[in-house]
Design goal:
The chain is mainly α. It is built from 10 helices and 4 strands, in the order H-H-E-E-H-H-H-E-H-E-H-H-H-H. Strand 1 (47-53) and strand 2 (59-65) form a beta hairpin.
Amino acid sequence: MKKQGVYEKYIKRIIDVCCALVAILVFWWLYAIIAILVRVKLGSPVIFKQSRPGKDEKIFYLYKFRSMTDERDENGNLLPDEIRLTKFGKALRATSMDELPEAFNILKGDMSVIGPRPQLVRDMTFMTCEQRQRHTVRPGLSGLAQTRGRNALAWDDKLTSDLEYIQNITFLGDVKIVFDTVKQVFFKQKGQEDKDIDEVDITDDFGDYLLKKGRVTLEEYEKKQAEARELLGV
């Protein structure tokens, strides 16, 4: 286990709490406006919560503004995500406004401002022991992988970026990621050239990606999915 520096051990958490409090107090009006719009356009609940693995792989609820409807087919099954994701929902995601409630996750200590993005529990079960080291730190609102292409980044590159980040956590490094994230969101900078990005369906879970690539067998896939359901108690 790597030795933590002074910033990572003592200062980072203080900055996280201060940033989360300032965001909530200064932008409370924006939270209120978005909440009303979500309620009117998408219905309730306004807040979407989902189980994610955090530091030391402790499961927590990630909070986001809802971005999809609950439309179902004649059998009561939810329609595909691309149908339930409205123009309003797409706009929320494109501007990352749907992630504003994660400030409360930061206050609770589930997350940090900067760190590896929290993936799904079923993604975690497919990671190697080395890749799961990303869970030795708090997950972040944004991270190094997000500055290198956001959702367009292939799974392998994303996880490699996470491991690169946790090996050298510094104040200046985190500040740079904050500014690079702003450029990503508002100026649509891609980070890496498209030719360097492994072509992948960005809607795929990690397990689906590995199965398509032939890197896990169907038996291994089903075993890992069952492991995820057991962790979630479903």
